[in-house]
Structures are given as C-alpha cells and as structure tokens.
Design brief:
7 helices, alpha+beta
Length: 237
C-alpha cells in the first residue's frame, strides 16, 4: 500500500500530521515514520534556505565532506550533534573522529548525546552499528552550486523527485557522503541500484506538493518506470 501525503502544510497541520503518522508507523514500522520524518525535515530545510538540502558537499578539489543525512539534523531536533560537528572539515576528519565512532560524550550531556544521534538512521539489529539504513537514489547528474566555506554543494535538480530508499546493509556509514547511483548518475565510486536492489525494504518519493511512501514491490514497480534505472527484481534469490 502506498501512503500519499500532502507536503506543503501550515505549521499546525504538519504537527497534526506528525501525530497521525506516528500512529501509522507504530502500527506498521518505525522506519516508515523515519522516512516521513526525513521528508518533513527536507521540507523544513527548503522553507529555511529556499532549496532542498544538497545530497553531498565537497571541497574545491572534489573531496567529499558532508552528507545530506548530517545537513538535515537540525531539522530533526538533533542540534546537539550539529553543534559539535566541524562543518569546515570532512565528516571523517580527526576533529569529527569521536562522532564517527559514536564515542563523543561530555559530562552533564543530556540525552540524546551527540554521538547517539546517528541511531535515527540505523537499524536496531544491524551488525554494523554506524551503518545507515536510508540512502538517496541519484538517478542522473547532480547540480553543483557554491556552498559555505568555499565548498561546493550538489543537488538533485528541482525537476526531479527526491527518492530515499530504506535498505538492509547499505555498507555506508550514516555520516559518509555516499549514496546510491542510477545508471546515468555521475558518481562512479558509489554503489549502484543493482548492488542494493535485493535489500530494498521501502522508499519515499518527495515532490514539491506531496510525498509517497511505497513498500518493496511498489518501489520496484516505481523504479522500473524511471528512465535509466533498469528493472528491480522484487523477488531476489
């Protein structure tokens, strides 16, 4: 079953929607609720900055620095992490090391501790405790724009939906600026859709006016219809 949700709502409407979705998710899957939280966070980011969050940010030489998963944290009430994160350096720079390995903690910190924030993106039964369960599918070239600190941000074009997949065992640290590339994407070092297709659980399609959550088989049909992605086997061996 697809869950179709209007995206542009007044503040009170969004609050009420969050309560409704909380009930829906508790009856089905907490990860469905997380997908909708991601959609609302991207909407709030766009309301604040007049554009969707970049998928990744690099330095002037193309070195990957920041992931969208980190950039939306202030919009999912994770300011404790954002205040600690050094956004002038790469995600895995020594200044961020103890955030990467989940060890940073200060006496008197209130839960959630900065290093615990990544659990939002993780699976409770994952053998890789820092591995994200949520990845963006990039189906074509990204748009490059100047960013802060002489960095460069790469965005999914506004003409395309933002597609977030929930996958099992992504092999990607939740802070790492790496996601999933379609056949026409310009990210040769990323895993491809073919690499993760047996692991897809569900997806969310984020458009300017509505958001749609799809379960696995519906996601496969949806991806089959997108140009350049190829068929997704909904019954892997």
């Amino acid at each position: 079953m697809s869950l179709l949700i209007p995206k542009r709502l007044p503040s009170l409407g969004r609050f009420a929607l969050a309560l409704i979705l909380g009930c829906f998710a508790s009856c089905n899957s907490s990860n469905s609720e997380k997908l909708e939280t991601i959609a609302l966070a991207t909407s709030n980011y766009q309301d604040t900055f007049n554009q969707r969050p970049p998928i990744l940010v690099t330095d002037a030489d193309g070195k990957p620095l920041h992931s969208w998963r980190v950039l939306i944290l202030p919009f999912i009430e994770a300011n404790s992490f954002w205040d600690e994160y050094d956004n002038k350096a790469a995600w895995n720079d020594p200044t961020n090391d103890d955030l990467v390995d989940g060890k940073r903690h200060h006496p008197g910190d209130k839960f959630p501790y900065p290093a615990n924030v990544g659990k939002f993106y993780q699976s409770g039964n994952s053998s890789h405790s820092q591995e994200t369960r949520f990845v963006v599918l990039v189906s074509g070239p990204l748009e490059a724009k100047p960013y802060q600190n002489d960095q460069i941000a790469y965005y999914v074009p506004d003409s395309q939906p933002l597609i977030v997949l929930e996958v099992e065992s992504s092999g990607i640290h939740w802070m790492e600026p790496r996601d999933i590339a379609g056949a026409t994407a310009d990210q040769p070092t990323w895993n491809t859709l073919a690499d993760v297709k047996p692991k897809i659980v569900r997806s969310i399609e984020i458009n300017s006016d509505e958001t749609t959550i799809r379960e696995r088989e519906e996601t496969a049909s949806f991806l089959d219809a997108l140009p350049g992605l190829g068929a997704v086997d909904s019954n892997p061996a």
